[in-house]
What we know:
The chain is of the alpha/beta class. It has 2 domains: about 1-245 and about 455-474, 3-Layer(aba) Sandwich (Rossmann fold); about 265-450, Rossmann fold (3-Layer(aba) Sandwich). It has 17 helices and 17 strands. The strands form 3 sheets. A 9-stranded mixed β-sheet has the order 3-4-5-2-1-6-7-10-11, with helices on both faces. It has a 6-stranded parallel β-sheet with strand order 14-13-12-15-16-17, sandwiched between helices. A two-stranded antiparallel sheet has the order 8-9. A hairpin with a 2-residue loop joins strand 8 (about 190) and strand 9 (about 195). The longest helix is centred in the N-terminal third of the chain and has 18 residues, at about 105-120. The two termini are about 15 Å apart. About 50% of the residues are buried. Synthesizes alpha-1,4-glucan chains using ADP-glucose. It catalyses: [(1->4)-alpha-D-glucosyl](n) + ADP-alpha-D-glucose = [(1->4)-alpha-D-glucosyl](n+1) + ADP + H(+). Pathway: Glycan biosynthesis; glycogen biosynthesis. Belongs to the glycosyltransferase 1 family. Bacterial/plant glycogen synthase subfamily.
Amino acid sequence: MRIFHLSAECYPIAKVGGLADVVGALPKYQNLAGLRAAVVMPFYNRKFVHENEFDTVFQGATLLGTRRLFFEILKEKTDKLGFELYLVKIPGLLDRENVYSYPDEKEQFIAFQICFLDWINWSGQTPDLVHCHDHHSGLVPFMMYHSNLYRRLAHIPTIFTIHNGQYHGAFGWEKLNYLPEIDFYKTGLLDWNGGINPLASAVKCCWKYTTVSPSYLQELSVNSNGLEYLFYVERDKGVGIINGIDTDVWNPETDPMLPENFATATVTKGKQKNKEILCERFALSADKPLIAFIGRLVSEKGSDLLPAAIERSIKEHGDKVNFLILGAGETATETSLNLLKKLHPQNVNVFIGYDESLAHLIYAGADFLLMPSRVEPCGLNQMYSMRYGTMPMVRSTGGLKDTVIDFGEEGGYGIRFEEVSVDDICVSVTRAVVLYKDSRKMQTLRKRMMALDFSWDRSAKEYINLYESLIPKI
């Protein structure tokens, strides 16, 4: 079974968020299960492409409106990532360093999709299925089924995975001429709220759409930035499949980024050693419970509540709890957190930015990971933390709800709270501080977390079953 995954991100080539982790792992595990899965993504002028060798497997020219574009398809020679990797390179458009935030971003991703379709169409390839990820590839199903140029591909099933339904990639009708030879009677399949909406179009046109957790599938019909009615109408087309994690990369026994590796049997000693090194680096005491936050400092993640929640928790618990923040985002939140660091240097430290090796060390060395998200389609951080014996403290939403059971319930292992509020966060901090004092219970819960299976083996099989249910329809 030949599958193409289309994505704007893929770890380790280019990562901005969890999308990269998923696309960098799912195809590898699908290949291990017997598929032939490949990733197609834009070319980025980054470290990975300079350190690896690529073959040019296709060259062509296409039109973006009246603009003629020359493009190349580059293939990584060794398949070292566990799958075939193809990069779409367009001089002057898809050959830059950053993934997002260019003024012509819409043109970048429209061109990326057109070049992919031109490549497989002109080279005579007929994949069994095309799997699109987020709005950056959301126009592909429409073009495959409703563009005269790609009639040869119209029978191929498409699946569209929504990693975050808050971002649609919408643009105005003045850019309609960018799309090649479409059936103008079908333009309603592009429309939402008076504009062209790639995410909405993908949901309308794909054979099936998936979300990255079952709970998020339900939540989209009540919170999807204006597409609620669409998800309600198309609900029978949706399937919720929880993401997995790459257990080869996220393995405390072999992780090269950890100063002290450990297994379930040695979790107490191993975590303490990593905690001591982490706390020494950030001038915090290793004798107190350490609550960490890793992620973007944006409203979606509830990070705007962190300064007030941390301030109140320190007042309530005195010198009995420490906080460590790793992330970047909204300036006001960054400023407030840095101020807390100055006011409470013995209890708070902040690293503005992102550092992959530091993230691994925090997962290994922290006692608790706080995730007060307003929206969390799946969440991978809580799965990483549990793999490393760090208890997640999560708001009950999306994938957090699906993967974390409160330790107060039978078989539980985490801390869950209902509201995105300073009050609920502070109550959870109090529960964490009390639990930390019970070292025997902490050890039991850590071992329970580490024994959970969040690997991609399970999730990859669910996707394969979905593929197989569609392909016989050809």
